[in-house]
Amino acid sequence: MINQQNTSNKVIQELQNQVSEKIIASFDMVAQDRSNYFAKNPYQHQRASIESANSIVNGYATRNGGISAAANLVPGLGMLAIAPEIITVMRNQIAMIYDVGVAYDKQQYLNKELLE
Length: 116
Fold this sequence. Notes:
Blueprint: H1 2-40, H2 53-73, H3 79-103, H4 112-115
Helix pairs in contact: 1-3, 2-3
């Protein structure tokens, strides 16, 4: 019984470590990706504005809701489904923060330290 519990704790700890590493790597990846996107679309009329901040948040909320709903459709996966869901939702949250920052014309302040 104790051996099973130790093995279970090790598996959970390893899963937590992997999720943490992926989320931390997401900060750099998402910041770079969104920065490249906005650099390739330099026209101000194409950029998000303060007025569109609510629609940015609503769009990401809808996307994240769909991800969570889809992850819950497959029965019996438990922890196998939760890790990718958490990582994907966190990436979307980071991207949302970046997009809202651009909408408020604060992209010069958007870096890994701020997004963490």
